[in-house]
Design brief:
Order of helices and strands: HHHHH
Number of strands: 0
Distance between the termini: 59 Å
Helix content: 55-70%
Radius of gyration: 18 Å
Shape: extended
CATH architecture: Orthogonal Bundle
CATH class: Mainly Alpha
Structural class: mainly alpha
Number of helices: 5
Largest sheet: none
CATH topology: Cytochrome Bc1 Complex, Chain D, domain 2
CATH superfamily: Cytochrome c-like domain
Number of domains: 1
Length: 99
C-alpha cells in the first residue's frame, strides 16, 4: 500500500459518514402542526431532527428537556417555550399501547 493509502481510506470514511448523516437528517421530518417552525428554529441550531424524534416523551419530560436545553444556551421567550413544549408533547409523545 502506498503512503497515501491510509489517508485516502480515512478521507473516504469521513466523507461517507458525513454524507450518510446528511441523508438521514433529510429523510426524518417533524409532523406538521402549530409549533413546528419554533421547534425547527430553536432546536435544530444544535442538533438534527433525528435527535428530537428519537425518544418519545411525556409532557413533563419534554418540559424538562426544553428547560435543560435552555440551561445549555437555547434562548426562548416564555411563549416560545410553551409552544415548543406543547408541540413536542402533542406530536412526539409515547404511543398509547391500548390505541
Amino acid at each position: 500500500m502506498s503512503r497515501f493509502g491510509p489517508g485516502l481510506i480515512f478521507g473516504f470514511c469521513v466523507f461517507s459518514g458525513i454524507f450518510s448523516a446528511v441523508a438521514v437528517s433529510q429523510v426524518i421530518s417533524l409532523p406538521e402542526a402549530a409549533g413546528k417552525e419554533q421547534v425547527l428554529s430553536a432546536c435544530t441550531r444544535c442538533h438534527g431532527v433525528d435527535i428530537i424524534v428519537a425518544q418519545p416523551r411525556s409532557s413533563e419530560q419534554w418540559a424538562e428537556v426544553v428547560s435543560v436545553m435552555i440551561g445549555h444556551g437555547a434562548v426562548l421567550t416564555d411563549a416560545e417555550y410553551s409552544k415548543i413544549v406543547d408541540y413536542l408533547s402533542t406530536n412526539l409523545a409515547p404511543k398509547d399501547p391500548a390505541g
